Amino acid sequence: MPLIKNCKSCCKPIKNNDACRILNTKINLCTTCQKAMNPLFISFRVLTYQGLAIYEYNEFMRQLIYQFKGCFDYELCKVFLGNFAQEIRLMYSGYTIIPIPSFQGDDETRGFNHVLEISKAIGLEMMPIIQKTGRHKQATSNLRSREEIYQFLRLKLSPDLRRKKVLIIDDIYTTGSTIKAAINLIEKLNPKKISVLVVAKAMVKKVNK
Question: Does domain 38-201 have CATH number 1.10.1790?
Answer without folding.
Answer: no
